[in-house]
Amino acid sequence: MALSRRRFMILAASVASTTVLSTESRADAPLLAESDPTALALGYKADAAKVDKTKFPRFQVGQTCANCQLYQGKPGSVTGPCPTYGGKLVYAKGWCNAYVKKA
Ligand code: SF4
Asked: Which ranges does the record mark as transmembrane (predicted)?
């Protein structure tokens, strides 16, 4: 029990530090490439219309980074940071399988 609590605390600290780093203003952050290994694994497309719906059946028309809970771009921005990719910039009209509908 103590070990799992310790592991949880280490994991929580790791996630928290990653979140802090990725929520900083990153106007100079690099643009996420579709060829990035994580982007490939999660089916990221800079244009949601190009998502492979066979490989990623979670995708529904209308879902884009702009209306994803994780998107950190300003409303109306063309790109914005995404913590899924360490704060790299993703296109507002993009999409990936980590999509979470904005509450
Ligand atoms: S997690 Fe959300 S904001 Fe980030 S790339 Fe995927 S759909 Fe876009």
From this structure: none
